[in-house]
Amino acid sequence: MPLRPALAAFHPKAPAPKTVRSVHCPHCGTGFEISSKAMSVRCPSCTRPLAFEDLNLNSRVEGDVSTMGHVQLGEQGAMVGRLVCGQLTNVGRLEGRVVVFGRIELCPQSLTTGEISGRSLSAGIGCTLRARASIGPKPQVSAIARTIGSRPLRRSGGRRMVGVGENARAFAPAGV
Questions:
Q1: In what side-by-side order are the strands of the sheet with 103-106?
Q2: Segment 118-172, tens digit of pLDDT
Q3: Beta-bridge mates of residue 156
Q4: Predicted TM-score (pTM) of this structure
Q5: Which tens digits make up the pLDDT trace of 50-70?
Q6: 3-state SS string over the chain?
């Protein structure tokens, strides 16, 4: 039985998100949609938590970084270690193993070495790519994605701890 107009004000429908993004769980591979403003969510299939924090790295970072958000490595940025993310834009230097569940963009003057796995790769004229690349509709979820998963980043005082476990390193935010 439909609600009378007077009662509709007390039983409003939940508004649909205005902008959504498609994501895939790195643990089970299930695809689903979330709001573009979501910071964290649990996978509806395996119920594991996923963090969607966007990161801008403008200094040297060593260790493991895991987020399903957008990671942007700036001109002065350098990263050595393992990276699992939703989208990657590299303008600086990146060395290590990378699993990206979306687009990989390598800008001119960037240097990328190691192993890269992602859905699509955009390489600008002048970028240097010295890596074993695996590009396809389903990124190869290797042991690195399973071991570092999507754990949130740890913070410590004025410095930010990036990564998990023994490989975590601290770096100062830009301008500090």
A1: 55-57, 70-73, 87-90, 103-106, 120-123
A2: 989 999 999 999 999 888 876 666 544 555 544 444 433 334 444 444 444 444 4
A3: 159
A4: 0.68
A5: 888 889 999 999 988 888 889
A6: CCCCHHHHCCCCCCCCCCCEEEEECCCCCCEEEEECCCCEEECCCCCCEEECCCEEECCEEECCEECCCEEEECCCCEEEEEEEECEEEECCEEEEEEEECCEEEECCCCEEEEEEEECEEEECCCCEEEEEEEECCCCCCCHHHHHHCCCCCCEECCEEEECCHHHCEEECCCCC
